[in-house]
Design a protein that fits this description.
alpha/beta; Aspartate Aminotransferase, domain 2; 7-stranded mixed sheet; 4-stranded mixed sheet; binds 4'-deoxy-4'-aminopyridoxal-5'-phosphate; pyridoxal phosphate binding; aminotransferase; transferase; Aminotrans_3
Length: 446
Amino acid sequence: LQAQYSAKRTKSASFFKEADSVIAGGVNGNLRFFQPFPMTFQKAYGAWLVDLDGNHYVDYLLSYGSLLLGHGHSVVRQALEQVWEDQGTSSFGATHPLELEMSKEIKELYPGFERLRFTNSGLEATLFALRLALAFTGKTHIAKFEGHYHGSHDHVLVSVNPELNQAGSPETPQAVPESYGIPDYYLQHTIILPFNDWPACERILTSMKERIGAVILEPMQAGYIAADPRFVVNLRDLTEKLGMVLIFDEVKTGFRVSLGGAQAFYGVQPDLTALGKVVGGGFPIGVVGGKQEILDMCSPGRSPKREEVVFHSGTFNGNPVSLAAGLATIRYLKQPGKFESIVNRTNELRKGIESLAQSFEVPIRTIGAGTIFNVLAIEGDVSNYRDLSRNRKDWRLALDYLLMDNGVYSKPLNRFSMSDAHGPKEIQATLEAFEKSFAAFKATVH
Ligand code: PMP
């Protein structure tokens, strides 16, 4: 399959070779690489991508889920032209009206945001939320869940690795660094919890209540594995009781699981939330929002002594380009029926994939919520990271190469995100690609 992939992408192959001679590994982010080489795209419009060799794809990666309206949507373009005319492209190093407008718009959907701050990425949002939480509680440790991703900073690049048998039991998860170069400090100060396993979580959190100041989680792991509603409620109650700040990382689920994120879906209010991706309308952004008493820890007027204030800074925080694009995106999505129609199309596509899988007797299913789903070769319950190790990655990978061959791109082993630009034509093209891929899959794998 990889030979077939390479043969159809000779221009991408030579481009990657050249890129690799200047850019480390040829990619600006490790997850962008896959074998034998990632393709290079020359064009994007609506739901579509065109690679250097002229192959067209329906795009389900969508800038890792950021583009809920698809590529180059007209409302985003108009907003960009306007902001360019009105105030240029960078922040003034001072608060400007668009920041206030955007804050109010977000607050309507996330009523728990008594205060907020803008950052430039999801990574910065989770990092800052954790710093606020530790300052607020005066504690030293954070707790995170197995396999939950919160961006590429040291404190959260710690997990378990069931594939390498480095997981320990769910009762005592064994923390391992997820990258070379993570100082031991973070390994010792990041406690790992098993997702959706309430008795084990309760025991670990209670036994370390003096030290753990923050519990951070993706309320839907990787955007598609839902927490049991009782688990979320239990976690909310226990963290409150034990004096821990509960942080929902909704960088992925925000505006995608529902417009108000997973917190609206579950009806559970965390103390802090990290947002990113969709809220920037395709431009870099992050948001930390939540309880005033916690966010106020970073208020510069709080104390003349710098050491008594939580420091937060960033040259491009609140940059007008991201805010204008994000504001246009949110307002568009708030129109009656808009968001629901993307969810309906997502469900239609998932149903189509599942019924094709059944008729071809291919052991593939979809799992997800709202406008995100994943395609897995797995049987039985999937409620946490350990369950995912039962996924037949080799099968999914085979399917991925076949799908790329037939004009569907989500990047190997990645989730599928939908957009407003994925209409009937794109859904039909996708289902035709799945049909051809399933037929070939049977010939390849069995
Ligand atoms: N948290 C979650 C849940 C994410 O999915 C991501 C990005 N995939 C991040 C944080 C990090 O965001 P960014 O890539 O903007 O730093």
